[in-house]
Design a protein that fits this description.
mainly alpha, globular, 2 domains, single chain, 12 helices, Rossmann fold, two-stranded parallel ribbon, three-stranded parallel beta sheet
Length: 331
């Protein structure tokens, strides 16, 4: 029987997932759960490279995991857990860090970008962040990693680290590949449609969050940047309206051609309002699920504890082999 491929994805806990996260990632994750072994990790240790308010961070972390569940990820079919609950992440980071060159880390563009944004807290964690990311992935002998453009460089480093370790100490890690979904779409900023929709965008009107109120969604959609042509067309020359068509199509199941045909001769104003209503209707089940889960904290705790237990077992299998390969005396 063919072995199921292992998929690992880690996301830092923030206030809310975005519509882009849902369409571009979560929809695909749900499609993976029957044919792959999937691990979805809330990478709370990564978040510590920026100073956090402890009480607020605790609440955000729980809320973020709950949003995964409310989006439809099945905790029986996927391993959903907090990174900090599996200590092997930190252990493997140290071991891999001892084989990662400073020159490699110096080339990481995200360190330069984040250092510019956090000039009062340029810490060593920001610099070694990619090694922790490599440990996250390699710990589970991951085959496939869903990553965005901003993380491609880190995945390449992960592959180099895995190959180097395997060459020095014998076959230990799988060398992961980037996962490119069969379906799904790249959702762009509502204010700068040349950029991907991002939860860290400083412009509040650029991003639709799954936790946004109905009024907020309608206001953001009405303010979405389009163009002066006032023609509903799916063309690169009209990136703003193209993005809205993509959202409409992704959430209704209608093809791009059907959406364009249905709005032939109609203006942007009506299309924006209809797209907002499609989003609002689409998010109703998510919001109900989220509320139900948040009212059941025992269930949430059970999910992340069981997830960590499963992840711990897989991680320890890898670490036992790593320690043996390195010549460390076993416990």
């Amino acid at each position: 029987m063919k072995r199921k491929k292992i998929v690992f994805s880690g996301a830092q806990p923030t206030g809310s997932l975005t519509l882009g996260n849902y369409i571009g990632a979560l929809q695909n994750w749900k499609a993976l759960e029957n044919e792959h072994h999937c691990l979805y990790c809330i990478v709370d240790l990564h978040s510590l490279t920026v100073r956090q308010d402890p009480k607020e961070f605790h609440g955000i972390s729980l809320s973020f995991l709950t949003q995964y569940l409310a989006s439809g990820l099945d905790p029986e079919k996927n391993i959903i857990f907090f990174q900090s609950h599996v200590p092997q992440h930190a252990e493997l980071t140290w071991i891999l860090g001892c084989g990662t060159y400073v020159g490699e880390l110096n080339r990481m563009t995200q360190f330069k970008d984040k250092s510019e944004k956090n000039k009062d807290n340029v810490n060593s964690g920001l610099f070694t962040y990619p090694v922790l990311m490599a440990a996250d992935i390699l710990l589970y002998k991951t085959d496939l990693v869903p990553v965005g453009e901003d993380q491609k460089q880190h995945l390449e480093l992960t592959r180099d680290i895995a190959a180097r370790f395997n060459n020095l100490y014998g076959e230990t890690f799988s060398v992961p590949e980037m996962y490119i979904p069969k379906i799904g779409a790249r959702i762009m900023s509502l204010q700068e449609p040349s950029k991907k929709m991002s939860k860290s965008d400083v412009n509040a009107n650029a991003t639709i969050f799954l936790m946004d109120s109905e009024d907020t969604i309608m206001k953001k959609m009405k303010r979405a940047v389009t163009d002066s042509e006032n023609m509903i067309a799916y063309r690169d020359e009209q990136p703003g309206i193209k993005n809205l068509i993509t959202i409409y199509s992704s959430l209704t199941g209608l093809s791009i051609e059907e959406v364009v045909s249905n709005y032939e001769g109609k203006g942007y104003g009506a299309f924006k309002i209809d797209t907002a209503e499609v989003i609002i209707e689409f998010l109703r089940p998510f919001k109900k699920n989220y509320k139900d889960y948040m009212n059941n904290p025992d269930f949430i705790e059970n999910v992340y504890k069981k997830g960590a237990q499963k992840a711990y077992g897989l991680a320890e299998n890898t670490m036992t082999l790593v320690r043996e390969r390195m010549g460390l005396v076993q416990k």
